[in-house]
Amino acid sequence: MKVRVFTLRFDPARGGFDDDALREWMDSVEVVETETFFFEHERAPWMSLVVSYRPIDEAPSAASGARPAWAERREGLQRELDPAERARFEALRAWRGARARADGLPVYLVLTNRQLAAIAKARPTTLEALGRIDGVGDGKVRSFAEDVLRVLAETDPAPPAGSP
């Protein structure tokens, strides 16, 4: 696994952080985990991201007209899910998109597709169970657990017998 750090300045004209280079780079890697730090420098908001990733061999390029690597990865994750898990995954993706827009963040900083798939499979019902999902640390539990557990409960209201 490798690590890369990105530091992004808030762009008031754009209404968010200029993350075009980051998004382009992410098409060629598999993001394992991100950590986000916000700070102010010279009266301007900045965001630093520490991204743990794995390189993906021969990622399709945008110039070739091939589908983006992230779409291929998401579909691969979805094929590993049964129909109920896919429904939870899609509900979590919809929540993540709305939450990311509200917070002015790229969606992958809320939760990655791999984390959403793991949550959809595990179907946690407690903060502790959610925190055991790979890549979902204390910060994400504090920030998003209440919403994630609500989405899971609304999507599939009857938890499995003996769920954590």
Give the structure's gist in a few sentences:
With 164 residues, this protein is an alpha+beta fold.
How would you characterize this protein structure?
This protein is an alpha+beta fold. It has 2 domains: 1-56; 67-158, HRDC domain (DNA polymerase, domain 1, Orthogonal Bundle). Helices cover 46% and strands 23% of the residues. The protein contains 7 helices and 4 strands. Strands 2-1-4-3 form a 4-stranded antiparallel sheet.
Q: In percent, how helical is the residue content? A: 40-55%
CATH architecture of the largest domain: Orthogonal Bundle
Q: Number of DSSP strands?
A: 4
Strand content: 15-25%
Number of domains: 2
Mean pLDDT reading: 81
Beginning-to-end CA distance, first to last residue = 30 Å
Question: What secondary-structure arrangement, pairings included, does this model have?
Answer:
Blueprint: E1 2-11, E2 16-17, H1 20-26, E3 29-41, E4 44-55, H2 69-79, H3 83-103, H4 107-110, H5 113-122, H6 127-131, H7 138-155
